[in-house]
Specification:
By secondary structure, the chain is mostly beta strands. The chain has helices spanning 2-19, 35-40, and strands spanning 48-52, 74-79, 85-90, 103-109, 112-119, 130-135, 141-146, 154-162, 179-184, 193-197, 201-207, 213-219, 229-233, 242-246. The chain folds into 2 domains: 29-162, Jelly Rolls (Sandwich); 179-246, no CATH class.
Length: 250
């Protein structure tokens, strides 16, 4: 009895899908004929492949690619990223067979758009278009394709890559008498040390694993500072860096 009920339920669901009572989910946005239409249409919010269904809407303005010739028509999309991304928009996919395209990417709002990216031909021998640009989560961007070269239907792909966190730095004050001449690993611990030189003293601020420095000074007995240049390398092949420095044209 259970098997019969499951079979009947599957048949009922198939019939409901077929007659459209249960809607099938649709992702992304179909092309709009104007920026205003795109601003109220369902936005693109994730990576995917999208179809430009013939280019017969408002022409993009301003022109964003280097080829600044105006077009007569365009198709528009609104894109709202859900995170900070590096985004690539490209028509360079096999299905397009190297179709000649041109793309514009805008920030701002309709009526006051600013070029964010743009491309006509990408790479040698390619007539397709590819742009890579950075976006911020929740901001609105508009992608527009024009008919300067072609007005027929084609697909484009939008891909997203998470933006790596910014590297942070901590300022550290050190005592380095003489002339600062290099950041060199002087003791083989794979941490760069700060080398400064005066006429008779070599000072090395040895970097520690926690980012701090310990200063050590050495008397060299020399008479010249490294006012011109300094070179570092394992001159005697003992596994540790040596220093050669001089003044004038040294």
């Amino acid at each position: 009895m259970l098997l019969i009920n499951q079979y009947i339920m599957r048949k009922v669901l198939l019939i409901l899908f077929a007659i459209g009572i249960i809607p099938i989910a649709s992702f992304g946005q179909t092309s709009s004929d104007s920026c205003a239409d795109a601003s109220t249409a369902t936005p693109i919010t994730a990576a995917g492949v999208f179809t430009v269904t013939g280019i017969n809407g408002d022409a993009p303005n301003p022109i964003c690619p280097d080829n600044s010739n105006a077009a007569s028509n365009g198709e528009w999309y609104r894109y709202i990223p859900t995170d900070d991304y590096f985004v690539t928009v490209t028509s360079n996919i096999p299905a397009n067979n190297n179709m000649d395209t041109r793309v514009h990417v805008y920030s701002g709002s309709c009526g006051s758009l600013s070029c964010h990216a743009g491309n006509d031909d990408f790479g040698s021998g390619s007539f397709t278009s590819t742009v890579t640009f950075q976006v911020q989560s929740g901001e609105t961007y508009y992608i527009a394709w024009d008919n300067y070269w072609n007005a027929t239907t084609f697909d484009f792909e939008l891909s997203e890559t998470i933006v790596a966190p910014l590297v942070s730095f901590t300022s550290t004050s050190i005592s380095a008498p003489g002339t600062d001449r290099g950041a060199v690993d002087m003791n083989g611990d794979f941490l760069d040390d700060i080398v400064s030189i005066s006429a008779s003293t070599l000072t090395i601020n040895h970097q520690q694993s926690d980012g701090s420095f310990i200063k050590t000074s050495y008397s060299t007995g020399g008479t010249y500072s490294a006012s011109w240049s300094m070179a570092a390398g394992d001159y005697d092949r003992n596994g540790y860096n040596d220093l050669v420095y001089g003044n004038s044209s040294g």
